[in-house]
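Structure representation.

___
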Amino acid sequence: MLEQAPKLDWYELIELHVVRKVAELVGRRWNLGFGYIDAARSQAYPPVRIRRPIGRGPCQLLQDNPSGRKACAAHGQKILAMLESKASAKTLRPRPFALPCHAGLTELAAPVMVDGVMLGALVCGGYMPEDQDASGLGVVCEHLPRMSPREILFMEDLLEEAAAEISAFLIGAGKIGGRSSEGELRASYQSIIGVSQPMQALYSLLDRVVTSDSTVLITGENGTGKELVAKAIHAKSHRKNRRFVAQNCSAFNDNLLDSELFGHNRGAFTGAVADKKGLFEIAHEGTFFLDEIGDMSSSLQVKVLRVLQEGTFIPVGGTETKQVDVRIVAATNRDLKTMVEEGTFREDLYYRINVINLRLPPLRERIDDLEILVRHFLEKHDGCEKRLSTECDSLLRGYAWPGNVRELENEIERLVVLSGSSPLFAAELLSERMRNNQVGSGANFPAEPTNSLPDAVKALEKRMIHAALVEHDWNKTRAAAQLQVSRRNLIRLVQKYELE
């Protein structure tokens, strides 16, 4: 029932990106009142931060005098009663509904529901359908909005989107208990931030993966949080009380990585003054996260395959076989299937680690999560209460985020440091690439001139180099390998195109 719903901070909710944009649109386009209503507030109050450039609307005029405010409050009770009936009907997502108000105008209410609980509604009104007789209207207003059926339907869709944004935020921020499937899934993986549809699909798949002991391959671009997901898998598995060990396979050369993974015996090589346990042995009965497994050499791939198939390995310089029980979670940002076709990655290992594949969506595919991610990163800075300016928010949402969530976190830290005492993050504080919309794909670079082949080749070369550098966090060795040029040549080209 509505009266059992928790009290919400509507002044916080009204600042959500979609909600704010809808409020601005209906005010600018139709001069309508916009607010909220719930059991704690029996009247729809217009948000104080919404400004209308075309004068005062009918709802504002009606509430200028005590009798008008009293009548609006009584109308609010009618909306509450309608919400009660919607809640009792057990409708999953009720559509916005219209009610005539005491002044003869029409008001739309979009119910906000989470976990089957009706929390209240977004309210937008002060208009008349264009086919309704306005001769008896007792409201003096310079700009009486008259709306066509098509406009009314469009406004209903806008309100429904705004109400859905509030529901998603409340689930993701943990402000409402999780009784629905989305709430339960989100609550199960608190270390992973996101409430968008791609993330809900990921939570659903994770819920099935964690209960098994199968090998998992996590794929996705750099900065999407592959290690966070690996830790979440371990934390929810039956191995959660054992060790979680992580190793980046691109961090060492072949010999050092061999020693790190499988250990070595005393005297195996110069400097091996004592026996050393490898990470596989340390991770016994736990989970071993092999990051960037696509960078592993063919000889080490054979040894990892043997661990996967038989659970055995021989340390460097050793003769005795050791037995381990380890669940492997691997990750890569490379196309292993293409590498198999090119002969640079073993086919048998590929099929052995690709039992379950989890693809992490890049940030540009779940841009709806940007607001909750920003809020999360601000909380890490001693609960910073600053917020994005409208222009800053638009630039962030229009950026392609080649560095994904990691790049966003770094950008928020930059804004916190540079903003000083200002309560808003201004757009001019953003990195130059974001102000100029310089995306990792290179789509921001000037288009190649069609009348000059040399210039077109240079422009393409510049875009490809920039994209490779961004993808590999500006590691020139790995970028050169992807571009199939020498590192020395890549450095020369970076200087030539001023990409440093």
In short: Residues 42-56, 177-185, 438-450 have pLDDT under 50 and may be disordered. The longest helix spans residues 149-172. The two ends are 59 Å apart (CA to CA). The CA atoms of residues 294 and 336 lie 7 Å apart.
